[in-house]
Design a protein that fits this description.
The protein is mainly alpha-helical. It has one domain. The protein is built from 10 helices and 2 strands. Strands 1-2 form a two-stranded parallel ribbon. It is an enzyme of class 2 (transferase). Its EC number is 2.8.2.-. This is Carbohydrate sulfotransferase.
Amino acid sequence: HRRLRARETRLSEFNQTERKAMLGSYTKVLFVRDPFHRLIATFLQGMGISPSFSSFVQEVLDSGMHNGSMAWKPLVSLCRPCLIQYDYVVMFGFLRQELGHLLRRAGLPAGSLLPELTDSQVQWTYRWLSEQMFSELSAQQKKQLSHFYRWDLAAFPFSSSFLSD
């Protein structure tokens, strides 16, 4: 079938039967990260030209869903969890534990393949950064960000996200 071989065809363009046939033989893994942490990482990597985190967030909000960068678009719009039934969802901050489990399930030696991951240090650092960056935002920006990422917050268990409030 020509459509199945087309390189630029989006998964959403296939009907349910075609998607199921294509994805049925794969183990589907989705890596997710708190949307606020993604914003912080994007800002710190210099992907925005803004001088402050608050002005960067305003750029993100002004760009909206359709014109935004993949670095900060809501995950639900990128990974289509309603279209794809993922076998595993791996949360950033629990990588060592979850990747070890995933490798064992795949029949691979988990210990020798995993890099040294210090999840607890990463979680502490992002908690501190989140507090600092969140305090820079106006009440309106906080409300708009929570609305912008509402589907990610509903789809994934980001219970400790600053945007969950």
